[in-house]
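hi! just following up on the protien thing from before. the input was this:
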Amino acid sequence: MNIKPLADRVVIKMVESEETTKSGIVLPGNAKEKPQYAEVVEVGPGGVVDGKEIKMEVKKGDKVIISKYAGTEVKLDGVEYTILRQSDILAKIDK
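and the predicted 3d structure came back as:
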């Protein structure tokens, strides 16, 4: 099954990694607060939303930083995704 977002919405998958504290304790992904780093999985077409022309600035595969409590979490085929508006994306990460 595929998710195809509408309008200015973006489907992302959160990037979780283990974190080590200063004292050397390794925190697994579920023991810390919700991550704000994600990878873009699908992008809506943009267009006119609420009377404004929206140009999509992100593309599939981009790494992004999102607002802390943004979007709606969904689970599809055992994988958790978040669907949010492009305006909830704060920045793209370039490497």
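The radius of gyration is 15 Å.
Residues 13 and 76 are 11 Å apart (CA to CA).
cheers
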